[in-house]
Amino acid sequence: MQLEVKIFTVNKRFPLTISRGTTAQTTNIWVKILHDGIEGWGEASPFGVGTHSQATAVIKNHLQQLIPVLQPFSPLQRQQIEQILTQKQVPSSARAALDMAMYDWLGKRVGLPLWQIWGLDRNVIVPTSVTIGINSPAGARARAQDWLKFMDVRLFKVKLGNPDGIDADQQMLLAVQQEATDLELFVDANGGWSLEDAIYMCNWLADLGIKYVEQPLPRGQEKSLVELKQKSPLPIFVDESCFTSSDIPHLANYVDGINIKLMKSGGLTEAMRMVHTARAYGLQVMFGCYSDSTLANTAAAQLAPLADYLDLDSHLNLIDDPFTGALVQEGRIIPNDLPGLGVQYSELSA
After folding, report:
1. What is the CA radius of gyration of the chain?
2. What's the farthest any 2 CA atoms get from each other in the chain?
3. Tens digit of pLDDT for each residue in 231-261?
4. 236-267 as b/e, with b when 16 or more CB fall inside 10 Å?
């Protein structure tokens, strides 16, 4: 199969601030594979977690090196290709783009969307949360208003872990709650709290009716989840602490759920493994995203019927997304009826 690698830059309508910094623009990678006259598409987006970083240039370099390596293979040979990518230590974002592209090719080959190939039911897809980044109380209220004007919002995910401390977190959360009195709120600290602060905040948030807390402690402090689990009245989800299915057994006794992201997992193949592993341990499942366009989020939406929670909103905050794909219906991200991923290139938005 032939492999083509292209970069594209997307800009956020509203910059997003989390505990680790602010993002207004990202340069992502559009991967195309061509085999037997059928083209499959995938996307890689950069991300960083603690000391772990996958920059666009590094991802692109790995993909370009794979062009001659993958040429003898068919997109149907996913197991063999996965072994090659593992041997060559290809970053998970690059793997995700290739895996998406091979599944997109498969769906187009048989003329069916992936959700239908997997026998999934779009009617059970839950609404996606939309994100309010770290801000002043007034700024957070304004962002909530912007989202409410933009779409039929059902859930807000509020980013906490403010470098100014938990007092700033509390003021911001209360401002959002006052603005969105009828909506459920989730909280994501992105590893921005100490154990002491996390224990305090989990109890404080529970009194406010918050549904769950995501990644309260930094990646690398997973042993402290034991104590937090004992003292938190809220369910705890992990994101940065859980990349692939092999991480789940070590976390299962101390958390209530995991956040699966295609860029962390390495694609739909591993994401499916993560779902089954999490279920085997009695954990809940969420699908999330980084600064992904409609391409990657539509790929994740193909597995959305398997999730308890969804946080697939990054493409909704882009002013120049070059793709169209999954539909927004009643606050839900719904994959369409087109074959494969169901993604098309949009000249108007590029």
Report:
1. 20
2. 59
3. 999 999 999 999 999 999 999 999 999 999 9
4. bbbbbbbbbbebbeebbebbbbbbbbbbbbbb
